[in-house]
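hey so i finally got around to running the thing on that chain from the lab meeting. sorry it took forever, my laptop kept dying and i had to restart like 3 times. anyway pasting the input first so we r on the same page abt which one it is
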Amino acid sequence: MEVDKMDENEWKYHGEGNKSLVVSHVQLSRVLRLLKYPAEDSENPPQTAEQAFRQIQNIVDFSSNVMSNLMGEKFIHSGEVVKLPLEFVRQLSIKVQHQRPAWRCDKVMDIYSGCALCLPNLTCPALHQPTHTPPLCIEIKPKCGFLPSPKHVSKDIKTKVCRFCMHQHYKVANGKWKRRSLYCPLDLFSGNRQRMQFAVRHLIEEPQNNLKIFKGGQCVYSSKEGSDESPDLNGLLHHLRPYFMYGNNRINSHISSKAVLSDFIQVLVNALLSGGGGDGGGLTDRRGEGRSFCEASLFNKERIRHGSQGLPGDSILSRILQTQMLDTLDIEGLFPLYRKVEQHLQDFPKERSRLQIDGPYNQAFLEKLQKCSSEDDGSVEYAAAKVHQYRVAMTAKDCSIVVALVPGAEEEEDDEGQRRLRDFRPPAFSCSISILDLDPKPFDSIPRQLRLDQKIVSCYLRTGGALPKGSLPPPPAIFSAAEREECTLLFHPM
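ok and heres what got predicted. didnt touch it at all, straight out
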């Protein structure tokens, strides 16, 4: 990628979050992440080019020095900061503007600094051959996979119903979504295949911004925020069917929608349970803590007939969960420590640098996290380390998993050199798994986190878990648990 020869016509809109907009190259497996800021600042950028460069470099450092150490280097692509010609960025901003969702247009793309984060395009992995069936790519935002300890929370409901399930009620009540998602993160993080398949099925039924499915780099399945329309499940089936033509002796026969989705869900669960290199020494078993079942989940505990309760230690979900559990105090228990640090910084502003409040995110920052005492010694160093742990845990609670599935060849040559179909064998996929969205959470966002937590909990308690009038009913279930058929799918982690 030659920066001085950048052409906006070689890039297309890919997606965006709250803080950045992403464009992807039409040929190279590359994306650019550009910063955004409020539209009212469009004529007067809120930071200089040097500050924008430092902000993106902080994201790279946090990802490569902190999160990759905690979650596993093999899962993380930190990328690099690039400086782009300003005219290219301006033209790119004009080009993508009409493709952006209306509700995201309260913010504009940074066209002044010329800084961007360059990353591999994980929705279109370079490991596939262009002549073969394009890769499927599933992006999941799993959210928080455990309940807080009763020691630090003021409302008992927080130890029974998970944050995601309560937040769903708040989002529907405020009109952000028209219907509630029945997905529960605790089911996905359970390590029990039945619960995990149950969770994935509900992600498919109501994706919101927790699930996107790409085919050959194009998004083929997602939700539109605030829309009454259900996602196009028939369209998804149309895209998935060719990938599951050969499994379970069903070649050239009619394959039911139920079987296609069942196969797809099982392949995805296999990928999430795979360690990509051994199981890392057993399971992360949390049964004794009573923090892995959510009362709002529709999964019936009695249905767990067999299988482990815990994740393989080296699986991507286990690594994410362990990092999330650095939040040992919940926002309620943490807030007094935050206030202590904040007061200290008001009295001694130069201490901000020594306590690494805004980075640098280096080995010393990681050691502060890892060596933090379990007992509060009253020091500001302890309070700052707990705040850092919480911020890292929040990043893990808000990250995305990207599973790229590359189908095996549909034809092979036999001993006589004849081409033949892979008849009567289950579909095989090569797989790569990555973690995205690993930006550091700002120190100053903690009071806002507490206010949001209080609003979510009081909304849930006020309604008794009932949805507001006018919310749409959940879409019809894809298929009932009793209808699921077992299938064996070959799985080759890469």
